[in-house]
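Technical note accompanying the year-one report. For the benefit of new consortium partners, we illustrate the data format agreed upon in the data management plan: each record pairs a sequence with a structure-token string. No post-processing was applied to the example shown here.
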Amino acid sequence: MNLYDFRCMRRGIALATVKDSESYLLHDQYIHHPAATNNRAILLLHGFGSSPAVFRILMPYLTKYNAISIPALPGHGSNIQEFSDCMAQDWLIAAEVQLQNLYKKFSLVDVLGFSLGGILALQLNTKFSINHLYLLAPALSLRIPIPITLLTAKLLRYCGFSNLRNSAGNLYTNTCCEIAYRQLPLNAIIELLNLINDFKFSQPHCPTDVFLGAHDTVLANTKIKHMFHNMEHTTLHTLKNSAHVLPLDMDCNIIGQYISNNF
């Protein structure tokens, strides 16, 4: 891990470097609650260029689960070069492995996916019998035109550019920040854009809650709402005091309480 590759970000501004004492937040996390007797676990999947640290405020609301698994997706939580070498398929395979490991121990497994993690969660739903799906600002449709952005990213790479400054931390709050890469490799950006562009959306097979931030400047919320509109066993929630990074924003308590109440 190279801590210099990370920054505490809010609305695209780097507020601080990451301290050695905070580095554990970037690693895989597995929390076991032996007092819970429901034989139920949850898998949390973070966003693109982000880290398991994005769920640190949500954690206290998940103590009813026997186990919480928060993997650092391949290339995340390490260094920019390793991130550049990863492919979108690596992220999906890693998520599948984590889910399979949970099913070896628990009969019921929920999946929560934020942004990129939301796409991965929906792909897992086509292969596994997930108990409940929570999608936090799933990156199914972006405000930017993907074909033009893809072409631009490839042109920049052809011209010799390798990284771009990260605009992480799309938050409505002024009291929290996202720990994310300070730069994003063009290779990884292209992988993400291709993943979104090629994704085949289908109705989830399990109870699903979709949370969207009213002030999100990353996603095309109207299109995402249309995807899930009137869909069976799916509930849409618009959070009035949140932008894109929902697990850290002002309505995080609403998300956490809703998940807790589902027990």
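Partners are asked to follow this layout when depositing records. Residues 26 and 77 are 5 Å apart (CA to CA).
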